[in-house]
Design goal:
This protein has 255 residues and is an alpha/beta fold. The chain is built from 8 helices and 7 strands.
Length: 255
């Protein structure tokens, strides 16, 4: 039996991964603020164990409480051969020049972005590793990063900085476990450009806030975006493969 956790499973890439992970042979625990009734119906049809929780990962206290309860749940799970944590939830806002980050509205958006994109995956990884340390089961952690964490993008300083932080956190996890007992396989993965609500939000940005907006509009017009289903299938095949975790920072377009 596998036990998989997916954050941000209400829509987009996370919803597609959760959908494809549904199986009677797998326990799936999903988290998001919004519900996903289609996923819950499909789980019932398949007899697939699904525990769908609604939490705001941008709320530091709610996130810490969830991490604690996740740890308790993992510790109490018998008969699991592989534990998998997929930190997928993410936000691209606030978008705009650095000068705009200090604005009142932007300040809250900045805190929320850092909490969802960085602090939540750190906390969940911490709880996951501590709770499964003595299990003897295989452990894999997939952090959904972005190419934007690996080069600068004007207008995306918060997003770039948060994904760069996620990348370096992933490398720290690998370093701390190198040579130790039952090291987890960890990977911070750029998923390519995927046709989700996040991309729609990017395309609707004002050029003054995001100078590259036209390139993203053109990619959509050219049909160059991966569907969430196709991206999810490719990512899950990689996650299940022996190649997963060979490189701590990876890009699905190279697999
Ligand atoms: N789409 C792309 O082209 C692309 C490219 C590179 C990287 N990525 C990364 O891929 C991941 C998935 O993105 P996506 O394109 O699927 O985005 P999306 O369609 O906007 O979905 C984001 C998911 O994250 C969840 N989420 C956001 N804020 C949350 C919060 N405060 N608490 C709990 N869950 C929250 C959302 O659920 P609720 O709103 O229900 O809470 C939703 O399920 C992100 O990490 C993103 O940075 C995407």
């Amino acid at each position: 039996m596998e036990f998989v956790i997916v954050t941000g499973a209400s829509r987009g890439l996370g919803a597609a991964m959760a959908w494809q992970l549904l199986s009677a042979a797998r326990r799936l625990l999903c988290v998001a603020r919004m519900p996903n009734p289609a996923l819950e119906r499909r789980a019932a049809e398949l007899g697939a164990p699904l525990d769908y929780r609604r939490h705001d990962l941008a709320d530091a206290q709610a996130c810490a409480a969830f991490a604690q309860s996740l740890g308790d749940e993992l510790r109490g799970s018998a008969g699991v051969s592989r534990f998998v944590l997929i930190n997928n939830a993410g936000v691209v806002e606030p978008i705009g020049r650095v000068e705009s980050l200090a604005a009142a509205a932007g300040a809250d958006a900045l805190g929320r972005a850092l909490q969802v994109n960085v602090a939540a995956p750190m906390l969940l990884t911490s709880a996951f590793l501590a709770a499964t340390a003595a299990s003897g089961a295989e452990r894999r952690i997939l952090n959904i990063s972005s190419g934007a964490g690996r080069y600068p993008v004007a207008g995306w300083s918060a997003y770039c900085a948060s994904k760069a932080a996620l990348d370096l956190f992933t490398r720290c996890v690998a370093l701390e476990h190198a040579g130790g007992p039952n090291p987890p396989r960890v990977c911070s993965l750029a998923p390519g450009i995927v046709d989700t609500a996040m991309q729609a939000a990017i395309r609707s940005t004002d050029v003054a806030d995001f100078p590259s907006v036209e390139r993203f509009r053109q990619l959509k017009a050219d049909g160059a975006l991966a569907t969430p289903e196709a991206a999810a299938a490719r990512i899950l095949a990689f996650l299940a493969s022996d190649a997963f975790g060979e490189r701590e920072l990876d890009d699905i377009r190279e697999h």
